[in-house]
Amino acid sequence: MLELNKYKAVTFDCYGTLINWEEGIITSIKPILQAHNVNLAEEQILENFAEFESELEQGEYITYREVLRGVVQKFGDRFKFHPTNDELNSLANSLQYWQPFPDTVAALKLLKQRYKLVIISNVDNDLFAFSAKHLQVEFDEIITAEQVKSYKPSLNNFRQAIERIGLPQEQILHIAASIYHDIVPAKSLGISTVWVNRRTGQQGSGASLPATAQADLEVPDLQTLLGTGYVS
Asked: How do the domains of the chain map onto residue ranges?
């Protein structure tokens, strides 16, 4: 049993955990591929995205808007087509329309009554501002890649989050859908973790690179976490 009462802050990954980014990615990328006569299964689109995004987030920091533009270019490079400028920008431009999972908003509103809520996200400030409107709660802290100039799974993102939250890591619970981006680095710093396995029953690791780590708790969604006795 995960005793949520011992935590004072709950930190969240945003995209993939709160916002349905895989649907957003497919909705944006698939028409580009089809326009250039490239037919990939949705799982292949997500796996290529995971590879390209990770490559672009290595090394010297670039904005997430630039990362997403680079992802589209890498699809073109791999599958032998030349994206138009509009196509290069379309993935980043689509992010403002990506929607929360059905259980997200209710869970956030419930947790907000008891805990400090924090976002730790691989995104630009202006892009997260669009998503914040969909999430409908006021977060106590928002830590973006743009602010800390690195991308998860870098420990820098989590260390700066701990510093800004102002609590020992033992009082912080991190909730995320990506083992690669979140569970591995958070656990290495002694932060308790909940893996929200949004891909329960599906093959592969989707839009995140495959990784292995044991979260303190695995649930298929936030409704399960809050509604079936896992939390006391």
From this structure: 4-20+99-227, 21-97
